Amino acid sequence: MTHAQTERAALCDLLDRLGPEAPTLCEGWATADLTAHLVLRERRLDAAPGIALPFMAGYTAAVQERVKRRHPYPELVELVRQGPPRWTPYGLVPGLDEIVNTAEFFVHHEDVRRAQAGWEPRVVPRDLQETFWKRLRGGARLFLRKAPVGVVLRRPDGTKTAGRMAEPAVVVTGEPSELLLFAFGRQAHARVTYDGDAAAVARLQDARLGP
Q: What are the angstrom distances between the C-alpha of 136 and each of 4, 26, 144, 186, 199?
């Protein structure tokens, strides 16, 4: 299995176990809402652009609510588990699922895991950590474009990549998986450390980050 498939399966197992009303890190969403979001992004291509485009967000939210009402929760989870249909770009373009969904499903898996009491970071395979680091090196400036201060991402071995060039700058240190969660806007639940001016760190911790 690819990492995207492994994360998808593990997330679906967790969603099945927790049921539709468990909390998530996605503001205002329980597990049923997050599951409907995942169904929408792979099966309602007319509404998926509204995930990123504000002028379509209202339409996307309405479609997501209809998806949630139309399908019983176990059916929603099963649709996610099945993966993207063959007629979608994910099915038509070889490797696209792994490229796009590895980080997506890891982050949403952690959105569910870390919203539950007593969570602890899990061991992430080294090759997956390297995949996340490559994603951060290529996308950190996009993910952190809304940061109110400069940001440098640093691995525990000292390797760095620039997130946003500005002053004052904050250096954020952690494993690539934790830096990915930070860059996707999960600052409060990412196991990272901050080096920089205290006021700049506070502003960064409170900022809305992410793709």
A: 17, 21, 10, 15, 25
Neighbour-count burial of 83, counting CB atoms closer than 10 A to its CB (0-12 exposed, 13-18 middle, 19+ buried): middle
154: enclosing H helix or E strand: strand 150-154
pLDDT of 117-140, one tens digit each? 999 999 999 999 999 999 999 999
50-65 pLDDT per residue, tens = 888 888 999 999 999 9
Residues 109 and 124: their CA atoms lie apart, in Å, by 13
Joined tokens for residue 206: 């409170």
Alpha-carbon distance of 148 to 159, in angstroms, equals 23
Domains along the chain with CATH numbers: 3-113 (no CATH), 128-206 (3.30.1050.20)
Span 196-205, average pLDDT: 96
The mean predicted confidence, pLDDT, of the chain is 94
Q: Is 178 exposed, middle or buried (0-12, 13-18, 19+ CB in 10 A)?
A: buried
CA distances to 64, 73, 169, 194 from 70, rounded to whole Å, are 10, 9, 47, 44
Place of tokens 């980080």: 103
